[in-house]
Amino acid sequence: MEFSAESSADHLIKYPEELYREILHRVGGRKLAWDVATGHGKVAYRLAAEFDMVVATEGDSRILEGTLSNPKINFEVSSEDSVSVKSGSVDLVTVGQALHSLSLEGFYQEVKRVVRPGGVLAAWGFGIPRLGMEFDRLMNRLYSETLAGYWPAGWVHLQQRYQNIPFPFKNMMDERIEADYYWKFDDWLSFLESWTAVRQYKMQHGESPVDVLRPLFEQLWGGHETRKVSFTFFVKTGLVI
Fold first, then answer.
1. What residue ranges do the domains of the chain occupy?
2. Would the pTM of this model clear 0.90, i.e. be above it?
3. Residue 139: which of 16, 225, 221, 222 has the closest Cα?
4. How far apart, in Å, are the Cα atoms of 207 and each of 202, 211, 230?
5. Of 50, 105, 157, 196, which one has the fewest beta carbons inside 10 Å?
6. Which residues of 50-114 form beta strands (DSSP E)?
7. Which DSSP letter does residue 101 get?
8. H/E element holding 20?
C-alpha cells in the first residue's frame, strides 16, 4: 500500500517497539544511521535514541518543513541514491514503508558505498489493516477493485510483503509483527484519504472514493468512539558485506 509522505495521517501509525528491537539487536555499531524517505522523521527520532548520529533524507523539502530539530539528527533533502556521508561509515540503513517506491538500482549502490562491512539494511512495510470480516470485505473492494488502476508502480511488492522485491544482500530476517491501534472514525477516514491511489482517483474523477463509501464505513463503525485497527508489519533485513 502506497501512502503520501506529507499526509496528516502519518502520526496515526507508530511503528511498534518490537519492530525496532528485532532490527537493532542485529546491528553491531551505534555510531551512524541513515533513515531513507524519512517523511516527518518519526523513524529518525526513534533512531536518535540509539545512535550517536542519524542522517534522515527526504526528496521533498516541503515535507521536512514541519520536522522538529534534534541535535543528533541531520535532516537532508536528497534522493535515495545520493547521501552526504562518508563511504563505509553507516551502521544501519532504514526504509519504512518506502522501499518499493525507490529507484532500487541507484539506492542499493549507495547502500553498498556508505555502509560499513557488516552493517545492516532494514526495510519494512504494511498492507491493508483489519477491523472485522464485513469491514475487511469493504476495504478489499476499495483497495483491490475501485483503486486497482491507480496505485503507483511498485505497489505490488507491498501486496507480496516484499517477498519478491530485488534485495541483493545476505538475508538476516523476514519477520512479521502484529500491532493494534485504537482510532476514531475521523482517524480512519484520514488514513484512507492518505492513500496515493485515492489522491490519483480524485484528480481524475473529481471526487473521492472514500466519500462514496463513507456511509457504509460509518454504518459498520457502529457508533463506537474508537475501534481496534490491526496491522501486520513485514520486516526485511539484510547484511551488507
1. 8-129+152-180+231-240
2. yes
3. 221
4. 5, 8, 28
5. 105
6. 53-58, 73-77, 90-96
7. G
8. helix 17-24
pLDDT attached to residue 66: 80
Length of the chain: 241
Tell which residue, 72, 34, 68, 71, has the closest CA to residue 52.
72
The CATH classification of domain 8-129+152-180+231-240, taken from the options 3.40.50.10490, 3.40.50.1000, 1.10.3720.10, 3.40.50.150: 3.40.50.150
The phi-psi region of residue 154 (left if phi > 0; otherwise alpha if psi is between -120 and 50; otherwise beta) is left
Say what the pLDDT of residue 43 is.
97
pLDDT at position 241, please?
A: 87
Q: Distance (Å, rounded) from C-alpha 80 to C-alpha 37?
A: 7
Predicted local confidence at residue 6, as pLDDT: 46
Residue-wise pLDDT tens digits, 17-67: 999 999 999 999 999 999 999 999 999 999 999 999 999 999 999 989 888
Site of grid cell 502519518: 10
Closest CA to 200 of 150, 148, 139: 150
Residues in the chain with pLDDT < 50?
Answer: 1, 4-6
